[in-house]
């Protein structure tokens, strides 16, 4: 209800205000309804920031903000400080509030290949803020019926948990993250965003590649997500736009900065943590792809092999237990004091009735992990092993 | 009202919608279709939900106990993981935790305790967790669960951590101790 009241108040106050708004730059003066939008944005950001869902890696945020700073002019930043934050969520999403705060989900960050792709996404979202798209969208709503139906779509009409999501994101966040803007405003975000990355020296050829990669994954993994960047038609629209702008404006020109190694080094923990989120969500194949990507950067990492073991053990289809054991074993070879691998092996043997082996691995797990939060369960298993082993 | 429904549903999780009218609780409650019986406290209100029963004394936002039965072959509301017949109690608990982690409405979600437990004569788990709603109100949740044949049974209690949780925890423990399956599978 508060979303509806807030949006109605904007509609009432805006009267016949113009939608022909200049982008934020030198001599910018915010208007009354815009000030309310910004104030509302701060409230919604506050909820997000205190939700426990912020990834909270200062070094990563600082890197993302450095990339963002390259994409915007000092005149603009003076009036709208751009700030990037990361949300621990495995879905393909990023969204910007009107006051320049941009949230990127770990899900989309983990799928990117280089800094040029990151710059493409940030620039797209940044244009929504600097070109005042939220204000334009609100002002552009001409009648109450259209307005209400838009809001309904934004808040709860899409299914797939969007109603729940609206509680967390609020009206503005949901509109930015889920329904997106009008086709015209999204096209402007693509085009102006592309100009920004070219001006910053990035390789424009990477812009469509990011979305082609997402499209492929959405198709292959049959991803069904409510968010703007997780929906097939919106992704196709981005690819078409970027390819067409590149052909029109940059045909024959050389690319620029890609920065693959630096980017992957900065986000490698995101890739791993996001794979764990995908495993929690039961997206086993996607989780495995994430761990494989992480292992490409850290080939000997025991915890990554152990996570692969977990993925196969929890998936539990035919042949998966053998694969899980192989991965746990590899993890043990690479790091003999990493406890979780022993637990995984122990649980497999326990369920397969090999109690002596199970006991051995589970004992090792407990000895390596003195403060194991699941000690109660493990001690029960060991007791059962002793009982059955002694019979 | 929307908030009440939303919070109830997020807490109810797999249980789904309230399907019956509210009526006075108290005494033995037995559901043959859902195959469980339980003693309900006097002075509380009860209502059927899609896969079980909800009871509350002062309103669902202030405290409620839910008893549900979930078909292990069906998906959970948030994670795509499913229960399996041969799951250990710890594995079943992890599925529940993963469903909560995947649910974006459980803010600041934390597991306080995850231990083995006996529910009636069945081996299961006890989970204690806390989370906040978007207004910053902190809730505490105790959930017991176990798998029996094709079904996952769950009994849980949720209330604001401050004041309300402690107020009815004993009542919940009594309800929990009285839980029985009508027919073994």
Describe this structure in words.
The complex is a heterodimer of chains A (391) and B (185). Chain A has 391 residues and is mainly alpha-helical. Chain A has two domains: 248 residues, no CATH class; 119 residues, Tetratricopeptide repeat domain (Serine Threonine Protein Phosphatase 5, Tetratricopeptide repeat, Alpha Horseshoe). Chain A is 68% helix and 3% strand. Chain A has a three-stranded mixed beta sheet with strand order 1-3-2. About 5% of the residues of chain A have low confidence. Chain B has one domain: Mog1/PsbP, alpha/beta/alpha sandwich (Protein Transport Mog1p, Chain A, 3-Layer(aba) Sandwich). Chain B has 185 residues and is of the alpha+beta class. Helix content of chain B is 22%, strand content 42%. In chain B, the strands form two sheets. Chain B has an eight-stranded antiparallel beta sheet, sandwiched between helices. The interface between A and B is medium-sized, with 30 and 32 residues.
Key words describing this protein structure:
heterodimer, A: 391 residues, mainly alpha, Serine Threonine Protein Phosphatase 5, Tetratricopeptide repeat, 2 domains, 3-stranded mixed β-sheet, 19 helices, 3 strands, 3% strand, B: 185 residues, alpha+beta, Protein Transport Mog1p, Chain A, 8-stranded antiparallel β-sheet, 3-stranded antiparallel β-sheet, 3 helices, 11 strands, globular, disordered N terminus
């Amino acid at each position: 209800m508060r979303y509806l009241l807030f949006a109605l108040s904007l509609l009432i106050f805006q009267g016949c205000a113009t939608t022909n708004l200049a982008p934020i730059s030198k001599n910018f003066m915010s208007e009354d309804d815009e000030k309310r939008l910004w104030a509302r944005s701060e409230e919604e950001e506050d909820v997000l920031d205190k939700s426990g869902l912020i990834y909270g890696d200062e070094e990563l945020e600082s890197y993302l903000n450095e990339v963002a700073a390259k994409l915007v002019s000092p005149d603009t930043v003076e009036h709208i400080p751009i700030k990037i934050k990361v949300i621990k969520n495995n879905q393909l999403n990023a969204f910007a509030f009107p006051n320049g705060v941009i949230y990127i989900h770990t899900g989309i960050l983990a799928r990117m290949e280089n800094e040029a792709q990151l710059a493409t996404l940030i620039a797209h979202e940044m244009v929504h803020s600097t070109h005042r798209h939220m204000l334009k969208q609100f002002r552009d709503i001409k009648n109450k019926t259209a307005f209400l139906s838009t809001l309904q779509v934004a808040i709860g009409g899409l299914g797939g948990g969007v109603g729940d999501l609206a509680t967390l994101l609020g009206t503005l966040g949901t509109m930015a993250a889920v329904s997106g803007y009008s086709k015209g405003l999204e096209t402007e975000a693509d085009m102006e965003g592309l100009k920004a990355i070219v001006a910053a020296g990035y390789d424009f050829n990477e812009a469509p590649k990011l979305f082609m990669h997402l499209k492929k994954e959405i198709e292959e993994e049959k991803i069904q997500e409510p968010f703007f960047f997780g929906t097939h038609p919106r992704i196709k629209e981005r690819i078409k736009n970027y390819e067409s702008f590149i052909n029109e404006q940059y045909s024959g020109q050389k690319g620029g900065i890609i920065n693959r190694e630096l980017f992957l080094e900065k986000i490698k923990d995101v890739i791993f943590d996001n794979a764990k989120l995908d495993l929690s969500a039961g997206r086993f194949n996607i989780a495995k792809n994430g761990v494989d990507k992480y292992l490409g950067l850290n080939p000997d990492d025991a915890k990554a092999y152990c996570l692969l073991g977990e993925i196969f053990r929890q998936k539990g289809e035919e042949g998966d237990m053998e694969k899980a054991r192989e991965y746990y074993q590899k993890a043990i070879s690479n790091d003999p004091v990493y406890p979780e691998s022993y637990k995984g092996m122990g649980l497999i043997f326990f369920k397969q009735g090999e109690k002596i082996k199970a006991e051995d691995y589970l004992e090792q797990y407990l000895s390596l992990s003195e403060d194991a939060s699941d000690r109660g369960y493990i001690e029960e298993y060991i007791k059962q092993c002793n009982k059955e082993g002694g019979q | 009202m929307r908030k009440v429904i939303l919070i109830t549903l997020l807490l109810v999780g797999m249980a789904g919608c309230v399907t019956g009218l509210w009526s006075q609780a108290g005494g033995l409650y037995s559901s043959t279709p859902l195959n469980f019986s339980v003693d309900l406290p006097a002075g509380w209100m009860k209502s059927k939900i899609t896969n079980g029963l909800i009871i509350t004394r002062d309103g669902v936002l202030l405290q409620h106990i839910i008893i549900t039965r979930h078909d292990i072959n069906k998906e959970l509301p948030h994670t795509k993981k499913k229960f399996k017949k041969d799951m250990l109690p710890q594995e079943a608990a992890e599925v529940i935790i993963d469903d909560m982690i995947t649910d974006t409405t459980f803010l600041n979600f934390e597991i306080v305790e995850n231990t083995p437990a006996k529910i009636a004569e069945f081996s299961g788990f006890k989970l204690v967790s806390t989370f906040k709603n978007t207004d910053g109100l902190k809730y505490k949740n105790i959930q017991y669960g176990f798998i029996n044949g094709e079904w996952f049974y769950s009994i849980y209690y949720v209330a604001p951590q401050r004041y309300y949780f402690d107020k009815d925890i004993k009542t919940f423990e009594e309800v929990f101790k009285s839980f029985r399956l009508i027919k073994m599978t």
